[in-house]
Amino acid sequence: MEDEYLKKIWNFPDKEIENFLDIDDKSFESIQIKKAKSKLRALLFPKIIGIVLGLGWISFMFLLIYFSVFNSPKSLGKVFFIVSIAMILLFTFIGVFLYVKDIYTIKQIDNSGSVILTQRKLATLQSSIINSVRVLWLQLPFYTTWYISYDMIFHGNIIWWIVQILITGLFTFTSIWLFINISYNNLNKKWVQHFLRGYGFYSVMQAQDYIKEIDNFINDR
Q1: Is residue 21 part of a domain?
Q2: C or N: which end of the chain has fewer Cβ atoms within 10 Å?
Q3: In Å, what is the CA distance from 58 to each residue of 45, 66, 69, 79, 170?
Q4: Residues 6+ apart with CB under 8 A from 212
Q5: pTM of the prediction?
Q6: Dmax over Cα atoms in the chain, in whole Å?
Q7: What are phi and psi of 149, to 5 degrees?
């Protein structure tokens, strides 16, 4: 049998070798995509927990807004409370939506997909993680304004005003600065990479490296 197979290779060397290499390429692609999927699966549980906690937090804030609107007297402080909670709710909702989208993208990556399609989905997942981090940090300043009341505004002393303005200003500057600087264009910066590591971004980068090895493998042939 071995002699017959060698004769076939000898008689049709280019075709047989090409078929063998093609099978080898596909096997390597399958292995690398499986490695990438194993890294991405590690993101599923934290994102599911994030979605559950996020929905719980959204429900709680919705109840706060509801009871504030229908069961509390009108006042300037009430406006600060409702607007602050509503903005936190909005940004949390966007974050939860992006988490759901991430899970859907991860589930779409399978062994039957092409390398190019997998690369695109990983790029989409990478971009989604960046955007979710940016959006969630935008809610930061509103945690410093929800408690402002009528008495604080009209009867607060100068020290209170100075402290409140400094804290709200610092939180606003920080949130806007992070929103601007945490971007795809700044991924080459170490602090951005370290900052995103806790959000699962590192796992996506590792998955991308596995897929890049496929191109390197093919180019080296």
Answers
A1: no
A2: N
A3: 20, 12, 16, 19, 25
A4: none
A5: 0.76
A6: 99
A7: -115, 175
Total structural domains within the chain? 1
Residue 134 lies in a domain: yes
Q: Which residues constitute the domain of residue 205?
A: 46-220
Domain presence at residue 85: yes
Query: Mind giving me the DSSP string for the chain?
Result: -HHHHHHHHHHSHHHHHHHHHHHHHHHHHHHHHHHHHHHHHHHHHHHHHHHHHHHHHHHHHHHHHHHHHHHS---HHHHHHHHHHHHHHHHHHHHHHHHHHHHHHHHH--TTS-HHHHHHHHHHHHHHHHHHHHHHHTTGGGGGTTT--HHHHHH--HHHHHHHHHHHHHHHHHHHHHHHHSSGGGTTSHHHHHHHHTTTHHHHHHHHHHHHHHHHHHHH-
Give the model confidence (pLDDT) of 136-185 as tens digits: 999 999 999 988 887 888 877 889 889 999 999 999 999 999 999 998 88
Where residue 149 falls (left for φ over 0; alpha for ψ -120 to 50; beta otherwise) is beta
The answer to whether residue 127 sits within a structural domain is: yes
Inter-axis angle of helices 115-137 and 76-108, nearest 10: 170
